[in-house]
Amino acid sequence: MAQKDVPPRWDRKMQQRLARGEAAALGEMYDRFASLVHSLAHRVLGDERAADRVTREVFAHVWEHPETYDPKQGPLRSWVAAVTHRLAVQRLRATETAALPQGESGSAQELESKLRRASVAARADYIVHSMPAPLRAALELAYFQRRDYRQTAADLGVTEDEARRRLRLGLQLLSTAHNVGTPPGYGGAV
């Protein structure tokens, strides 16, 4: 799993190492981000093999084009997620378009709807995995274990006000999942 709050210095150094062609840097990036990349690709594509292919494509892109990452635009993690999203959507669009009968506008609309849903799901997954652990823990208790804010507070050992604050902030972050585009914190995919 990718580490949270990676300092921008690490991001810049990693980009420089990749630009110099250090294979060990690609290995470190893979170790850090492979689960994120695969889960986002799988969320969009709904297929294990296709997600594996996109994962390979993402790391090939990172290896071949490290200069496309701009540290001023946001963390390396967000850039990798944006590249993943772009490549997964391209693959889904190509696969689904090839399966469409020619001239069927209703099917094209269904494809676009499917792409929007997949993008929202992938973005929500990214947001949950990127949020601070205290917010994620509160949301997991409330959503998966059906705890109310009082039970969540008791389980987390925090005040009820703090539990409400964490739940509210976590839900506010998740509500941005419908703002389809690049993952939060990054201005451009590639």
Automatic annotation (TrEMBL):
Similarity remark: Belongs to the sigma-70 factor family. ECF subfamily.
Entries under SUPFAM superfamilies matching the protein: Sigma2 domain of RNA polymerase sigma factors, Sigma3 and sigma4 domains of RNA polymerase sigma factors
GO MF assignments: sigma factor activity
Pfam families: Sigma70_r2
Protein name, as recorded: RNA polymerase subunit sigma-70
Keywords: Sigma factor, Transcription, Transcription regulation
PANTHER family for this protein: RNA POLYMERASE ECF-TYPE SIGMA FACTO, RNA POLYMERASE SIGMA FACTOR SIGZ
Domain called RNA polymerase sigma-70 region: residue spans: 29-94
Record flagged with keyword Transcription: yes
DNA-binding as UniProt keyword: no
GO biological process, one term: DNA-templated transcription initiation
